[in-house]
Structure formats: structure tokens, C-alpha cells
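Weekly structure sync, notes
Attendees: PL (lead), two postdocs, one rotation student
Agenda item 3: pending single-chain targets
PL asked that the sequence for the first pending target be pasted directly into the notes so everyone works from the same version. It is reproduced below exactly as submitted, 649 residues in total.
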Amino acid sequence: MKKDNTAKNLLNNSVEIQILNLQELDTDEGIKLDLEIVPVREIVCPQCGSKDCWKRGNKKGNRKEYSCKKCQKFFLIYPLTDEEGEEIKCPDCKSPYYTLSGYFRGKRRYKCRDCNRKYVLNPNGRDDFNNLNNISCRWCGSKKYQRKGLDSKTKKQKCYCLDCQKQFTVGAKGIDVLIPPKEFDFEHDVWTTDHLGYEKGIQNHYKLNFSYVVQPWLKYFFKKYILYLSSTRFSFSTLIGKIEYIKTFSRFLLQINYSQEFKGINRQLIIEYLAYLSTNKYSYSQYTHCISTLKSFFETGIFNHWFNVEPALIRPEDWLKQPKRLPRYIPEEVMKQLNQHLDYLPSPVMRMVLIDIECGFRIGELTRLKFDCLKSNGKGDWYIQYQMHKMKKEHTKPISNELVKVIQEQQTYIKKIFGDSFIYLFCGRARPTTGRNEEFTPEPKLMKSRSFIGYLKRLAEKFEIKDNSGNIWNFQSHQFRHTVGTRMINAGVPQYIIQRYLGHESPKMTMVYAHIHDHTLRKEIEKYHESRVVNFQGEASELDETILSSNNDLEWFKKNVQARALEHGYCARPKVLGNCDISGFDGCYNCPHWRTNKNFLPVLKDTLERTNNVLQKAKNCGWKLQVNKNTPIKDNLEKVIKSLEEDND
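Predicted structure, written out during the meeting:
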């Protein structure tokens, strides 16, 4: 027993010696050990690098304490092995110098003092842990990463790159690490925003990777296709999507061992591809983008004489029926809870949320708001100016005075920290040194969308922000945009106004964003029956929305339409026609500019009764002039009253 303790003590204290040969000799004098002792590492001060150090003694856990004679600093040297006798060294740089860094899943975690790598010895019993050396991101080549557990299927180590924010699997079958060249090279499989003249996006998506397009002939012409699209200034995110969708076609060709290049692409192959998409359960959006990208690629290649394929390979019936889109707005009960807890967010993030609640920006528009985005027309009205990157144009939105104060507070915040050197209204934050640090340390860079929405997700978890079903609400940045559209349309704002406010190119896009609540629909139907306007022929009439297309709509209406109130309706005669020359109200019943609704039914019925009496007397007396004058009035009144009463029923 004594010999075991002796050997263990020597092993645990092997900071300066290493046991290479341990031999027990049984003699009458007791136990003798034949030891070969060699130095294993030099004692170097971590502060100044001096080797002139002296030992002060032992600390808890067999740690050796030393003192530097040069800088007078104390430091600790840890054992070379753990309690189980396993050698402690960094799996990356093999350095034996480390500090303790807590525990991971019940195992002691260490931090390398040379490369700052954190590690545990043989985690989860994997024998290959120490073989994961020189790991680098397969997307950008960076060696800065975090471990993200094991892949559920392959049981291989997953990692998260701290530079490009992409995940990769160590040892996964696929491409090698690809680092983009400084200068554009058509043959290289990685192109960047700088190569193609784009501005780096907010999502850090600044690379096009063609490596997964396996077939050389397909890759070559698809690169030409991407260059063609970039010359027409498609957005960079669109180009990334195009590559993702053509990768699916490349995988399909690889699966069926296709090798005939373009000459073998026919309708039968496309039908097999459509079946491949269906059997692999691609979503409607993925399915549609896959075939639309392929269709566009074929058409562009034929038009530019790059290659020839059969015409009409993809037909209209190949598209799936679009499913009904579910509303993505934030329910009012969730918005109420969010507003109650906004103060717990960092001030810059809280201001971002307040702006998005009122304006409904796309996340890229919100994070890229310029410092001087606040504009005034000199009449007390304020606007926010921003760049619509999706539409490639500038746009302005009217905002409330309360939001003006919020923006001015953020401008003061940015100017106080960065002065005039930062051109954006919102900045990013420095990476926290430990865990999920909720503190906001400003850094002169753009706020990432994942960071912004991460604050809201953690806020929802902390304060249990739930919907009516009792589920924690899963915040997404685009939900605020849908919420603005839904609120506006349920408040009675015309759709074409919402379209302009949200910056949509077509009414179809606005219809996706604006969800009409059931109670609003019922209210609008009742309102329609109450205030439906008809002309002198009893036909429904309303203002032409196409003429109301600028910010001066109301002013135009005041200047160009008389809109005089009458006892039986109102006059909509345009002012360009001059003043009305009809004498008396009876003439309105034959006028195309006269408008009325059911609120005037009592007056109209009374007028019809009086007109019938006049006509009866005129016929009895043979007054043809009076008969000819009042008959059209009688006919028009009967049409108007009938139309309004039918609508009332």
C-alpha cells in the first residue's frame, strides 16, 4: 500500500520530473525505487517571460506556486496529469500550460494558456477527441470556433465559426476549406461581395460558394449565369439563393449518375427531377424556387447562346398550387406584454423595437438606418428616411412626434460614444467574454439581426411572454412588419396607402402582410351597407383610387372637387368644370356629379312623393313642359331609392 501511495505522490507532483522507469526492489532495508529523473518543462513567468523564478510552495490540488524575481509576480503551475493519471495538454497546440476553467458536463475543463482553447479530457468517452487538431471552418478557413455538440446522425463534432457565423461538422464528407482569393478568379469556387462590387450584407453573407455544384459543365455555365445576374444588379442574397437551388439539381444529377451534359437534358429528366423534389418533401417555397431557378438558368443560357436544351422543359403545370399563407403578425396580447417589459432591454435595443413597432421595417432597413435619417418638412411634420435595399431606392415614412424623441435619444447616444465617426443610427455590441451577457457594450459595427432578435427571444423566456394558447411567443424580426400592415388595414387604412407605406411594388405583396380580423370584416360590411354611395342612376360610386397616389391626396381633393353638402346628398363636381349652373336642388337628380346614400332616404322618398303629385296634376291639366321636366326626376329617384333599399335589405 505504501508503494502505491509513493508512486501516486510522485506522479501527481511531476511538474519538474518525469518517471520513466519505476522498479521496486525488495530488500531488508525496505522499499527502494530506481528513478530516472529528467526536466519536462521550463518554469517561465506568464507576466514578463522571465525564467528566473523560485518555488514558494504548494497550493490546494497539487498546484505549485512560484514567484518571479524580475517582476515580483506570483503564479501557479498545475499538474501534468489529472486525478485519473491522464495527461493534460491542449488537443490543438499540445501545450501543457493551462488554467482551470470550470466544468463541462461533470468533467474538469481546462483553458490553454498558449492558444486560449478550452477543452476537457476525453469528453463523452470519445477516443477521437485528441485527434481533432487544427480544426478550421470549412466556409472561411477561420480557426476561431465554438463546439456545438455532436451531430445526431453521424455523431461527429459540430462547430460554430465565430467569424462567418456558420456551422460546420468536423470530418464531414464534402469540400475542403476554401479561402477566397484577393482578386476575382472565375475558376475559383468562392466569390465575395468585393469581387462582384456589392456592399457587404447585414447578415454577414458575403460569399458565393460553388463547391457543391459537382458537375464541371454545370458549374462553369452556372457561374456565367451568376455573373450575368450580378451585372443586372440582382441582390447578393438572391444570388446566394440561386446557388442553393441549383445545388439541389446537382445532387439529383449525382444521385442518378447523369453524365450527358446539356444534350441529354429533356422533359423526361425534368419529370424525374420534379418527382425527386416531391419525394424529398421540399416545401412549397423550396420546390418553387428550385424549378424557377432552373427555368431561368436554361432560358438565359439559350438566349445568350451558351448552350442548347429543349424548349419548354418546365411547363406551367409543373408549379404547385400555392398554399394559403398563415398570418405572421404579433397578436395584441403579445404586444401588450412586450410593451410592459421593454424597459428590461438595453436602451439601444429598446429604441430599435419601438421604431420597428411603428414603422415595420425590414431588418436590413432597420439596422442600416443612417444617423441623419430624421427629416422635417418645416411645418412640424417629421419623416424617417431610409434605403430600401430590396427595391434599390430611397423611401420616407411619416412618423409620430413620440418616435421623433426616441430617434433623437439614439442620436445623442451614438454621438456621445463614437462622435462623428459612425454613420449609422444603431451600432452592434462587443462579443461577451463569458456566456450570454445581457450587457450592451457598444462597438462601431452594424447590429446583426440574430443579436437583435436574440434579445427579444430571451426577454420572452425571462418574463414568459405568451399567446392565448399559453405558448412562449417566438419573436422574429419580420413579424413587426406584418403587424404594422395588419394594424393599418384593421384601422380602415386603404390598401394602396399601406402598399406605399410598406414600400411594396405590388398590391399582392401587401395582401400577404395585411391580415383582416373577423370583427373588422363584420364592421366593414356594416359600414358598407350604411354608407354606400350611389349616383343619380342608382349605381354604386366611389372616388377613383388611382388619382390619389401622392402625399398630397387630401390637398388635391380639396382643390379639385367642390364636395358641397346638399340636403339630399353632396356634389362631387370637379372644380375645373367651373361653378354649377343648375338652379335649385331638383336639377341634381339628373346630374352625374350628384352623390347620395341611405342616410338621405327620407328626403328622397318625400321628394319622390312630391314629384308624383306634380306629375299627376300636370297630366290632368295637360302641362306637357312640366311632365317632360319631372318625369326624368321621378325615374331617377325611383332607381336610387330602389338601389338603396335593396342594399338595406
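Discussion points:
- Residues 566 and 585 are 8 Å apart (CA to CA).
- Confidence is low (pLDDT under 50) at residues 1-40, 125-132, 543-562.
Action: rotation student to compare against the earlier draft before next sync.
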